[in-house]
Design goal:
With 597 residues, this protein is an alpha+beta fold. Helices cover 52% and strands 21% of the residues. The strands form four sheets. It has a five-stranded antiparallel sheet with strand order 2-1-5-4-3, with helices on both faces. It has a five-stranded antiparallel sheet with strand order 7-6-10-9-8, sandwiched between helices. It has a five-stranded mixed sheet with strand order 12-14-15-17-16.
Length: 597
Amino acid sequence: MWFLRSVVGKLWATILLLVSCVLFILTILLLKFFETYHVQEAEKELTQLAVRVSEVMQEHRDEALARSIAATLVGNTSKAIIVADKTHYWYLPASSQIRDLPISFVEEDQELRAVITKQKQVKKKTYLPSLQAKEDRYNEWLIVGVPVALNDGKHGAVFVYQSLNAVEDTTQQTKRLIFLAAFIAIVMTTVFAFFLSTRITAPLRKMRQAAFEVARGKFDTKVPILTHDEIGELAMAFNQMGRRLQFNINALNQEKEQLASILSSMADGVITFNRDGEILITNPPAERFLQSWYFEQGNESEAMAALPPQVKEQFARVVKEETRQVAEVTLQGRTWVILMTPLYNQTAVRGAVAMLRDMTEERRLDKLRKDFIANVSHELRTPIAMLQGYSEAIIDDIAATDEEKKEMAKVIYDESLRMGRLVNDLLDLARMEAGHITLNDEDVQLRPYIERVTRKFQGLAKEKQIDLSTEFQSEDLHINMDPDRIEQVLTNLIDNALRHTEENGMVKVVVEQTGEGVSIHVQDSGSGIPEEDLPFVFERFYKADKARTRGRSGTGLGLAIAKNIIEAHKGTIHAHSKLGEGTTFTFTLPLNETKGV
C-alpha cells in the first residue's frame, strides 16, 4: 500500500495501465483482422476448389474417373459432397479423417438448398457437430456450395467444407505472441518507470526533507539544483521561498522585539483582551496593577477574580457599544485611570486594549496642595496660640502666685521647644531632600543592634500591655549603615506602631535576608491605615486620623524623614495595611551594602 501511495508507484501503475490498455485494444484488432483475413482466404480457396470440382464433373463423362480426379483435388484438409439428387450423392475423398456431412443437414438448410434449387453459389459459416474422428465437440466450419450440370442433363451441386481450426490456431498463436510482447512491455515499462521516477522523485525526496527542516525552523536549508527542468525550477523556487521566509521571520522577530521593548519601557500599563475578556498581553506596569488586585483579594486562588469588577464592566461596555470607555480604579491606595478602546478584526470587534495610568502621584500632589496649608497651620497654630495666650496671661498679671507664673512660663517653654523641634525637622528634611545628608557608615551586627533599640520601648509597651517582640529569620547578619540614622527610622516606626495599637495588641520587628538585601519589617495589630490614605503616609505633615490628634512630641514629619534616610542608604521603604488588621512597614537595604558572617 505504501508503494502505491508513492509517486513511483503511481507513475508505474499509470504507465502499466496505459500499456495494458494499448495492448488490449491491439489484441482485439489483430485477432479480428486475422480471423477475417483467414476466413476470406479460406472462402476463396474453397470456392476455387468447388468450381474446379464442378468443372471436372462436367468435363468427364466417366463419373468414376471424374470423382477420382475430384477426390485428388479435394485433398485431406477438406471434404466435398457431390449431390445429384436426394438418393444419389458422393463424398470425396471417401477415406478421410473428416467425417461425412449428413445430407439431411444440406436439405434442411435453406441457404445450402438454394444451390440445388436456384443454381447459385453459397458460402456459409456454421457450427456443426464434430466431423473429425478424434473430436467430440462443436467446431466452426466453412461450407461453399457451387451448382454443377451432370452428364444426364440433371443439375446438382458440389459442396466443399473445411474446418476453421486453422484460423483458431492462428488466433492462439497470435495471442501467445501478444502475451509475450505484453510481458516484455510490462518488464520494460517497470524498468523505465522506476528509472524515470527515480530521476523525478530523488529531487522531490530531497525537497521533502528540506521542507521538514524548514518546518522545524531551519529556514537556511538549501535544496541542490540537479536539473534545469521544471523540478530544477521548483528547487530554485523552494530555495527562494526559504530565503524569503527567513527574511520575513527575522522582520517579524525584530518587530516583535521592538513592540515588546516598547511595551516593557512604557510607563503606562497595557492589557490586551480577546472577545471573551481573557487577558492576552500585559506589560510590567499592568502586572503590578494585577498583583495589587490579587493582594487585595487575599491571594485566595480558588475565589480570585482575574480583574476588578469595574474593569469587567468597562470591557463589557466597550464590546457592546464599540466605543472607548474611561474608568478609575483604586487598589491598595493607588489610583489607576483606565482608558479602554475596542480592537477590530476587519469590521468586527475581536477584543479590547486597556491603557492603565498610575495617577497616584497626581492625586497625591493635588491632595497635598489642598492639605499642606491646613497641615502646617495646624502644626503651628497650637503652639503659637498657647504662646500667645500664656504670654497675654503673664502680661495681664492673671497669674496670682509665682507658682502659677512658673507653670505658665514652663508651658511657653515647652511649646517653644515643640516649635524648635518642628523647625529642626523641617530643616533636616529639607537638607535630606536636597541631597546634603551625611552618612557615617559602620559595620553593625543586626541582632544586638535591633534588640537594643526595641528594649527602649519595652517600658512603654508594658504600660500599654502590648507584646513587643523581635524575630530573626537570618542569623549573624552584618550590615554597613549609619546606626544613628537607622535607629531614628526604627524609633519612629516602633513608636508609631505602639501609639496606634490597642491594649493586648502585638508589635513585632522581623529581620530577614532576601534576594534584594536585608529587609526589616515592623508589624502591628493596630487599627490600620485607610486605603485612600496609604499612598500619603510618607508625606510631610500628613496624618491619617482626621481628628489630627497626635502625641506629645509628634510633628508629622517622622515618616517623611524615615523615607529620606532609607533612600539615602539606597534602600526602599513601603507600607501594607488593612483596616482592622494592622499595618506593616518594611524597609530594605540593598544586598551590595550587606554581608553575612
